[in-house]
Specification:
Blueprint: E1 9-10, E2 16-20, E3 23-28, E4 31-36, E5 42-46, E6 49-53, H1 59-80, E7 83-90, E8 95-99, E9 102-106, E10 113-116, E11 121-127, E12 130-135, H2 138-150, E13 161-164
Antiparallel strand pairs: 1-6, 2-3, 3-4, 5-6, 7-12, 7-13, 8-9, 9-10, 11-12
């Protein structure tokens, strides 16, 4: 058995779960998410717990068992608490500002970069060098954060660029005069 997949998912009291034809719909205080599970899995709801059961012990089903359970659990956490990630901008003249649904990045290019936040994701700029991305879908929050970081990834010599708040950049020594 998958160690993750066999664990039941506890449902808090303020969340409504509906399972029909392997479509899991979860409604909570922050919004609603749905997931279409693989038709081979049996997803059951019994006494405020969700159980994910696989049809056999084939390698294919074992590899998807923990994934399916984790995706459903991430939906529960998203509609109840939400997800957020932070970015830090380092470099002289590099800055970010928020204007409506647009994030405007000045990153040393000849033009500013206008980034439109997708539906379901909010972007705040508490300081010119910090960006906070939040939403209920963990995957979407991660993709948006990675996309913004890709505009100017951190470089190893001076550390300039956009990095995650918890990311450590390994620095390299530059040229030496000799």
């Amino acid at each position: 058995m998958s160690r993750i997949g066999k664990l039941p998912i506890e449902i808090p009291g303020n969340i409504d779960v509906n399972i029909k034809n392997n479509i899991v719909t979860i409604k909570g205080p922050r919004g609603e998410l749905s997931y279409i599970a693989n038709p081979g899995f049996k997803i059951e709801l019994e006494d405020q717990k969700i159980h994910v059961k696989r049809p056999s012990d084939d390698k294919r089903w074992r590899s998807l068992h923990g994934l399916t359970r984790t995706l459903i659990n991430n939906m529960l956490v998203g509609v109840s608490e939400g997800y957020s990630k932070g970015l830090l901008i380092e470099g002289v003249g590099y800055k970010a500002e928020s204007r409506g649904k647009f994030l405007i990045l000045t990153l040393g290019y000849s033009h500013p970069i206008y980034f439109l936040a997708p539906e379901g994701v909010s972007i705040q700029v508490p300081a010119p060098n910090r960006i906070e991305i939040s939403g209920i879908d963990k995957v979407l929050v991660g993709e948006v954060t990675a996309k913004i970081r890709s505009f100017r990834p951190p470089e190893p010599y001076k550390g300039k660029g956009i990095r995650y708040l918890d990311e450590h950049i390994r620095r390299k020594a530059g040229k030496t005069a000799g």
